[in-house]
């Protein structure tokens, strides 16, 4: 036998959650002045938040614009470094022939001008020779043992590295001193 279906008089009343919460709170008439002041406080808070957000945006945009101006030439300078490397190899070849030749003297003058131009642009050479190996600034291409040299010290620079202000444009390729191999440390018999 089935139960009789509830009638509207016997069925419990189900309220939505927001109505249920409002139904349990005592309903006091809201003073229009208090309501207006609460709304004013809400709009003031929103205005302060938006003003702070706009101020932060302006500061961030100014910082990004300054960085863009400071490092705008970075790609151009990176493209110049291989050309400078080849020029320096030619300068060394001219020096080997004769330091008194007109070709060497002319190439040397151009090299000084290029170096001065790079300095004016804020480019600095990464110091490497004799320094401790720093993976943030140096790119190790080889490791070899040299008696008397501490482990992890740059022995030779195979390609110069450069920084633009505080940013690394190209890491210096270096040969680093390492621990002696077992064959070097084995006593001779």
TrEMBL record:
CDD domains referenced in this protein's UniProt entry, alphabetically: GrpE
Pfam family, one: GrpE
Key word Nuclease present: no
Sequence segments annotated as region (Disordered): 1-31
InterPro entries on file: GrpE, GrpE_CC, GrpE_head
Any one cellular-component term (Gene Ontology): cytoplasm
Key words of the record: Chaperone, Cytoplasm, Stress response
Biased segments, Low complexity type: 10-28
Recorded superkingdom: Bacteria
Record flagged with keyword Metal-binding: no
Protein family membership: Belongs to the GrpE family.
HAMAP family: GrpE
UniProt cross-references to PANTHER family, sorted A to Z: GRPE PROTEIN (PTHR21237), GRPE PROTEIN HOMOLOG, MITOCHONDRIAL (PTHR21237:SF23)
Subunit structure as annotated in this protein's UniProt entry: Homodimer.
UniProt protein name: Protein GrpE
Organism this protein belongs to: Prosthecobacter debontii
Lineage: Bacteria, Pseudomonadati, Verrucomicrobiota, Verrucomicrobiia, Verrucomicrobiales
